[in-house]
Amino acid sequence: MATRSTIMDTNSFRAEHADGLDADTRKLTDKRSKVLGESYRLFYRKPVHLVRGEGQYLWDAAGNKYLDVYNNVASIGHCHPAVIEAVNQQMKMLNTHTRYLHERILDYSEELLATTPDAIDRAMYMCTGSEANDLAIRVARAFSGGTGIIVSQEAYHGTSDLTSGASPALGTGQPLAPTTRLVPPPDHYRVNAPDLGEWFANEIQKQIDDMKAHGIKFAGFLADSIFSSDGVLPNPPGFLQKAVDVVHANGGIFIADEVQPGFARTGDAFWGFARHGVVPDVVTTGKPMGNGIPVSGLLAKSDVLAAFSDEIPYFNTFGGNPVAMAAAQAVLKVIKEEGLQEHSRVVGAKLQAELAKLMARHEAIGDVRGAGLFIGFELVSDRSSKTPDKALALDLIEKLRDHHVLTSVAGPYGNVLKLRPPLAFQESDIDWLVGALDKSLTELGR
After folding, report:
1. Beta pairing class for 218-223 and 253-257
2. Is 15 within a domain?
């Protein structure tokens, strides 16, 4: 069976595209292949050579300005001066690991835990979301005494051995762990169920029952609460509660992977899980936490974490270092002082409304859905049958690139544009994005 990957290969440069490149770009892609090997992927049939960023904008080597509608790494905006200053000042003083006392990690932990439900009262630090989710799986197994992990069918949770074994979005070339089970995504657009929450909870119970039938004890359910790799599935708010109840009733824990929906992204709440009124047992986060500085975290209920932490020492050389904590503190401060959660809610709603208006002009748009500045833009070949149109989606992102708008695709069919700009995205940018989508679809005859 041929391998496939939605998250890595759907929007990517391939060798057959090389002949269409200019000499400078071809030289870089050839050198990249030679020195980095074949596992890495570039976006776009004609890769973008970026050299500078500021806020929601990026510039390429030729000086062209782009609107970034994809990047949650630089969550509060590329090269934010507050993060640059915080990192610079701390780097001039000290950067070392967590086996010495330092105030920053303690101060930041108190600030970050203050954003979570009271029951979540412990923090641990790593460098990447993969590491955070890896540790979360270990905690789930220590707490439950089981090994079985449930994720959604197109989930992406990391690249370590444990997390890649629970990340079907990496494709069939990456085998899932025998203790991993998949549930279909809670797709309100495609699932015909009177109660999506009840339907999803039943799907989780089926997989727990399957584990039991195969002698596997259930440990936990790991989910990104906006189901971004599954195609951006945020609604209706609250549908996750019944699923979490089923998880707890079967002795497992709920791990909320907040790398994508966290840190004010959805507008409705600081954390994505809060839109659903649930209290996770463990919360993981990464990319948006440091605005480009590698830092990630695991937040947990103390009684859940104790099953692991009371028995096993944990150390991460760079996790929680003073420079990373300085960046994380700056990000949290900017989100609060610049009112970015409310900004995300208001501007995101206006953007979603304008995107929805395009449906009257373009039959190929099947659905527009989202929360705050995280929107799924689904393309279909037929609205009535909701037939996914992956080819159009891939052609569309190339056209958008020509109009200097950068984004990518998601979902099991590769037909959903994932519109997730830095939170610096402004109301004044809406015309650029919506106009580029309108022009590109028209140019494609759709």
Report:
1. parallel
2. no
